[in-house]
Amino acid sequence: MRPSALTATVGALSLAVLVIAPATAHATAPVPLADAVAALPVAAESREGYDRSLFPHWIDEDGDGCNTRMEVLIAEATVAPEADERCRLTGGEWLSYYDDRVHTEARGLDIDHMVPLAEAWDSGASEWTTARRRDYANDLGEEVALVAVTARENRAKADKDPAQWLPPSEAALCRYVTEWTTVKTRWSLTVDQAEADTLTAAAAECPDSVVDTEPAA
């Protein structure tokens, strides 16, 4: 091939790459919260057959000695704790955004599944394999899926959806509803009608909130 022809071919290929790359750079784009809520499929829920043991956790996925609970505590600390060779934490500071409370001891915190395991079961996880439920229960790929919060608030929430429970801190509303919707979207989970109505009403109060997540593998 002559130099001029080669140059033209390379230039054409480069142009093709420039045209194609932006379209494939991101699997998803941020979506306004109201639109993300509207996109959630509405379906009746059933807890038949649910058992918490069907969602194995906490695991040490990367084999570094810290299980999922510890990984979340380390990642969410506002003041970093120290971890020994067995991943026991000392020091550190955390802010539980559900109740706007600061903690200086990890034992005062629970790691909340943003969408509780039982709620996930009701919303589609009953059809998953145990391996996929394990991935859900230990989802470190989406930073809002697991959150360190005051143990009392986590236990008050229990298995409730937003139609039944919302954080006591009014300032937490938009964040909480956005994170709930993010997890439901990421894992292709359904919502029941009361849940959908509550999310829709809350989203109207949060016009600047967006859902930005990748589908779970």
From TrEMBL:
<keyword id="KW-0255">Endonuclease</keyword>
<dbReference type="InterPro" id="IPR011089">
    <property type="entry name" value="GmrSD_C"/>
</dbReference>
<protein>
    <submittedName>
        <fullName>HNH endonuclease family protein</fullName>
    </submittedName>
</protein>
<feature type="signal peptide">
    <location>
        <begin position="1"/>
        <end position="27"/>
    </location>
</feature>
<keyword id="KW-0378">Hydrolase</keyword>
<keyword id="KW-0732">Signal</keyword>
<dbReference type="GO" id="GO:0004519">
    <property type="term" value="F:endonuclease activity"/>
</dbReference>
<dbReference type="Pfam" id="PF07510">
    <property type="entry name" value="GmrSD_C"/>
</dbReference>
<keyword id="KW-0540">Nuclease</keyword>
<feature type="domain" description="GmrSD restriction endonucleases C-terminal">
    <location>
        <begin position="101"/>
        <end position="201"/>
    </location>
</feature>
